[in-house]
Amino acid sequence: xxxxxxxxxxxxxxxxxxxxxxxxxxxxxxxxxxxxxxxxxxxxxxxxxxxxxxxxxxxxxxxxxxxxxxxxxxxxxxxxxxxxxxxxxxxxxxxxxxxxxxxxxxxxxxxxxxxxxxxxxxxxxxxxxxxxxxxxxxxxxxxxxxxxxxxxxxxxxxxxxxxxxxxxxxxxxxxxxxxxxxxxxxxxxxxxxxxxxxxxxxxxxxxxxxxxxxxxxxxxxxxxxxxxxxxxxxxxxxxxxxxxxxxxxxxxxxxxxxxxxxxxxxxxxxxxxxxxxxxxxxxxxxxxxxxxxxxxxxxxxxxxxxxxxxxxxxxxxxxxxxxxxxxxxxxxxxxxxxxxxxxxxxxxxxxxxxxxxxxxxxxxxxxxxxxxxxxxxxxxxxxxxxxxxxxxxxxxxxxxxxxxxxxxxxxxxxxxxxxxxxxxxxxxxxxxxxxxxxxxxxxxxxxxxxxxxxxxxxxxxxxxxxxxxxxxxxxxxxxxxxxxxxxxxxxxxxxxxxxxxx
Length: 502
Known about the structure:
Layout: H1 2-21, H2 29-75, H3 83-125, H4 127-135, H5 137-174, H6 176-181, H7 185-237, H8 250-272, H9 274-288, E1 306-314, E2 320-328, E3 332-337, H10 344-351, E4 357-364, E5 372-375, E6 384-385, H11 386-390, H12 399-408, H13 412-418, E7 423-424, H14 433-446, E8 451-455, H15 463-476, E9 481-485, H16 489-493, E10 497-500
Parallel strand pairs: 3-9, 3-10, 5-8, 8-9
Antiparallel strand pairs: 1-2, 1-4, 6-7
Helix pairs in contact: 1-2, 1-3, 1-8, 2-3, 3-4, 3-5, 3-8, 3-9, 5-7, 5-9, 7-8, 12-14
């Protein structure tokens, strides 16, 4: 509104200045100059305030979305999804909200209110000119509606292609040693090339729709200005071929003509930010339709045992597990055994509440899921020291406890060569697969939680290290419950019970 009022002041100043130069009896020139200055300041202030408030709203929204999605992503990453796609959702999609919130939303409000206010100001000097401006709105709205529908579809496809490319790249980067081992470089390069081409095609399609919407606005803006100019000129000359209920003077005619471009200016600005709308709405939909995690289970402070009765779970894009029935006591070592692909990892995820149950039930003796420790096949490695990585689940742990747990997990050689304060980058450079697993195991043991879920803790280890880890797990099972998915027969022999999957 402030921008339109400023434009009105500028148009009035121009009209008075033209009238003064033409010898029409109008107020002095200094008044026209004052109106021009006041209008320019009003427009600049209104646009600055709108941009500042819009950016503040965008920052608040982005902070809230980051908190929600990063927490969900770190606590329970959606199973069966490419990690890169989920990271793109939590980073890129959130960033795409900025343009929508900071630029498009204020301009959308202005595009609804400002044209009507412009028409109202013009109507004080020339009701017919105001009617001409309003008359061009209905066909313009129909054209923009058609372009907007196409734009939404194109933006959704573009965002999906970007997520797919990000996920594909990160997934293939993680599997780079296996790709090179199996000489699958050419096939992977073709996949990456196809995904990149799809992103380029989707981007061009989105830009085509953006140019189309901009062309529609420019067309109707030109028509509106041309019609007002023709009407005002013919009215001034007195050669209109039809009667009108008004007779324009030079000042009134120039004011109406100067304000005519302002009628579609908010919509031009909206068109310039239309790509922000497309991407923002696609990002909102992506964030809203994020793979639903299983509903949170009741929590308990202690672990007194759990019973599974006719449990059936399905991992996304994986096998159906069950029905299986078993019971886990408050202490002891339970191993999940079975051939590769039988669903041992899925059953661990079901116990952790990360995979929903299709049927059956888990009955927790303490009334809910206890605090649990988790060591997966690919433990999380963060940039920092070895000690900080080991203590992720127990930030307040003393250095002596961290060192003892690291030795229990057979990390003696790593401690001897690099030390507890050795720096580790985000990629875990210099760590072997076995060392990564042992860091995950040590982290779970250090957590002090009453239920530990471990996925293949002795895989990729040499015989001596594997034996050391088995001894540590067997000793730890005397004071807490351990559930271990494993192919290690030597570890299975030490178990209090086996749950066999087929």
